[in-house]
Amino acid sequence: MEEKQGIKIGMPIIGGLIAAILGGIVWAAIAAMTEYEVGLIAILIGALTGYAVVLFSNKRIATVHKVIAVLFALVGILLGKYLTVVYFTSELFGDVSVMELVFDSEMISAFVETFQEYFSQPIDLLFIVLAIVSAWQIPGRMARTSLATDASSSDHAPRA
Fold first, then answer.
1. How far is the CA of 157 from the CAs of 67, 145, 152, in angstroms?
2. Of 39, 46, 69, 103, whose Cβ has the fewest other Cβ atoms within 10 Å?
3. Which of 11-15, 78-82, 116-120 has the lowest mean pLDDT?
4. Rounded to two decimals, what is the model's pTM?
5. Angle, alpha carbons 18-20-26 (nearest 5°)
6. Is the dihedral of CA 113, 21, 48, 56 positive or negative?
7. Vertex 86 angle, CA 81 and 87, to 5°
């Protein structure tokens, strides 16, 4: 992947993708267990992607890392919604498994066609905005914290 002025984006992209996939799966699993979509999970997906980007960038954060975290937070939310729809559709048609529907072209087309319905409630939009804010802020805060820690530890280092 590209590296500009010492800023690496390849590994942060991989970290963001892993976090998005895990977050989406967790969202769908919780929705399946509770039969209710918990919107707070969206915020956790934002936080998770932000943290993963920081972790995979060795705490060297630039604006591009925040953008990566936000994009993958949105991917994780979208994946969570899709997997939730797939789960409840498989429950509706008891003879079809979740794994069959996940990659079914008709299921994907139906989800794309009705996409806006899944994000039409104001509360959905609120949780998405909060997820974006989390994904954007966490890398900056963690980078500042690590810089402060590095600076304070170098102040106490013995000098020759």
1. 35, 18, 9
2. 103
3. 116-120
4. 0.85
5. 100
6. negative
7. 100
Q: Which residue, among 15, 22, 63, has the nearest Cα to 45 in the 3D structure?
A: 22
What is the CA 138 to chain-centroid distance, rounded?
12
Among candidates 115, 130, 24, which has minimal Cα distance to 72?
Answer: 24
Provide the token pair at 109: 């087309």
Dist. CA 98–CA 48, nearest whole Å: 25
- Alpha-helix residue ranges (DSSP H) falling in the chain: 10-34, 40-56, 63-92, 98-102, 105-113, 115-118, 122-155
Residue with tokens 């994780």: 76
Q: What pLDDT digit, counting tens, does each position of 11-54 carry?
A: 999 999 999 999 999 999 999 999 888 889 999 999 999 999 99
> What's the confidence (pLDDT) of residue 7?
79
Residue 134, pLDDT above cutoff 90: yes
Are the C-beta atoms of residues 39 and 7 closer than 8 Å to each other? no
Residue 153 pLDDT > 60, yes or no?
no
Local structure of residue 39 (DSSP, 8 states): T
CA distance 110 to 112: 5
pLDDT at residue 145 in the model: 62
